[in-house]
Amino acid sequence: xxxxxxxxxxxxxxxxxxxxxxxxxxxxxxxxxxxxxxxxxxxxxxxxxxxxxxxxxxxxxxxxxxxxxxxxxxxxxxxxxxxxxxxxxxxxxxxxxxxxxxxxxxxxxxxxxxxxxxxxxxxxxxxxxxxxxxxxxxxxxxxxxxxxxxxxxxxxxxxxxxxxxxxxxxxxxxxxxxxxxxxxxxxxxxxxxxxxxxxxxxxxxxxxxxxxxxxxxxxxxxxxxxxxxxxxxxxxxxxxxxxxxxxxxxxxxxxxxxxxxxxxxxxxxxxxxxxxxxxxxxxxxxxxxxxxxxxxxxxxxxxxxxxxxxxxxxxxxxxxxxxxxxxxxxxxxxxxxxxxxxxxxxxxxxxxxxxxxxxxxxxxxxxxxxxxxxxxxxxxxxxxxxxxxxx
Length: 391
Known about the structure:
By secondary structure, the protein is of the alpha/beta class. Helix content is 42%, strand content 13%. It has helices at 3-6, 20-26, 41-61, 74-86, 104-117, 134-140, 163-173, 192-195, 233-236, 244-280, 311-322, 342-346, 351-355, 368-389, and strands spanning 68-71, 95-99, 120-124, 145-151, 177-180, 199-203, 214-218, 286-288, 301-306, 357-361.
């Protein structure tokens, strides 16, 4: 991967650059044309790739390969977890607990189940630091609660949710618990044997793998209904011929994450601390949206509001004039009609703070030199925008 080409990329939470090693692992697989579900000798090679990948992902998550099911990505995994659990209760629709800061693929799916099947839902509001309180989850519990779904790391702020504590609460109450861990896998170590969640979603393109492939961890397949029916692939749980080339790329991405996640996290944390020190000593007025401490948030993410500017104007100037890529929120927003962040809105930020916010996210290919050049450019562009506005 050419470091210079990525020096201006600060939108890793939208998608990570696919690593050279992953690309190289996928190329030979293109020649494996046989359907993995066939019984001929050619199909054995394809089937082996799928089994090897299942083992690699299971190793990354510290779980059993038989509990890993491939999907087209995080959105499908989230849809499957929510609908797959709730479809078992169609005759007696009950209650769902989620939060106001979930990814659109969870919020929209929950809304669909409420509107079309008669489920009810409690949306938990985070505190001003972006974290859901376990006590709020406990207070929201009802006798007919049939699913809790809470993300592990927020895609806009990077704030970590108290998943181990919520998991224990759900387990004690015998309520299925789904975790959207799309933003966490490959950034921090996950131990599913210790975590005890029922379902967990991930997506390869968030940790240097290809797009179009992800997984759903299912603790007990007898408790969830398949979302896609047909030929009975994926241990009869997810029909459709597998995306073999992407699955091969996922295997390498999972292997690299297993071996390198702590080193990547250390680099991210060093870059984040350095960026914050540069921003804090700069002449521009900023506010951090959400917790920034190591134990409370991802090491690669900063969401900041900058007084006197609009985030979308800053993002446009940074890209057009300097080739820097940043974001004004999620690439998969649940609030595109209003064009504002539903996450920051839930955290009760003012409208001015929301429209002046940008998300900065980086990763394994980011260096401290990249951070220094980025902040220097950011400060100059903010000052230019303030001068233009006359504020």
